[in-house]
């Protein structure tokens, strides 16, 4: 099966040039703030175009919040930042009904979740009850309060940062919460050259303050619609399902990936293909995204934990065990 056979016909072919051009501007804006994190930026843009949510996990001080804020500032849209703390209440996130003395009626006061891009800083420092306030919003893009459903704006993306659960004063995210994030990325420490560049660019000024939007919410919505039309061949879809199944049948995992993971992986593959300038997906797109999309959803078995095997290693082995579709 050739790449040409995977693509749609010439009449139906999707023009992804706008995706490449606009997201190239967004990438350039982010890279003016974040040094040496090209792969992480690519994944963040992939999640945005796939209508997903992003979990950024790593130790303090490596640029988790900076990545989230620079992506938000690059798009001319509504942005809210939520600082998760142990005393944060669910109503602070979703909103609350307040009695109006003048009209003698209850009015809904929207919470911090009502924005196009919501930056949730240190999400695992909030209590499980507060964390759960995000479940409906992330999955259904709506908030229910006092029997009334309120729709969230489009596009809608949650970019949450968290410290490793070994850090003091954190609560691990429940499986249902983690499953709603399309992908998880880790920033990692910068290279020496990148850190030296950071000292020059951040030492005397704040580049985030100088960052200007390079696109807007309406344009992002248009690009998302283009991404939805990227062609995914039946063989590639079968490969996605087989990769997901490999995590469920793996003895090193006590919890495999959910059906939601299959859908998220499909959406991510479409977005990654469009960012790469293709109107069709290939198996390599699946392999590239399998780790970020699946790693935070699965749970290792006790035996694999005792052996010191990481989740990423187990997921990589599961993906490798699946035969790649024949391109002939």
Give me a quick take on this structure.
This protein has 15 helices and 13 strands. The protein is α/β, with parallel strands linked by helices.
Number of strands: 13
Assembly state of the chains shown: single chain
Q: Which strand order does the major sheet show?
A: 3-6-9-1-10
CATH architecture of the largest domain: 3-Layer(aba) Sandwich
Q: Which fold name is given in CATH as the topology of the largest domain?
A: Rossmann fold
List the total number of helices.
15
Q: Write down the overall mean pLDDT.
A: 87
CATH superfamily of the largest domain: P-loop containing nucleotide triphosphate hydrolases
- C-alpha end-to-end distance: 4 Å
Radius of gyration: 21 Å
The largest sheet is: 5 strands, parallel
Low-pLDDT stretches are 1-11
Name of the CATH class of the largest domain: Alpha Beta
Number of domains: 2
Order of helices and strands: HHHEHEEHEEEHHEEEHEHEHHEHHEHH
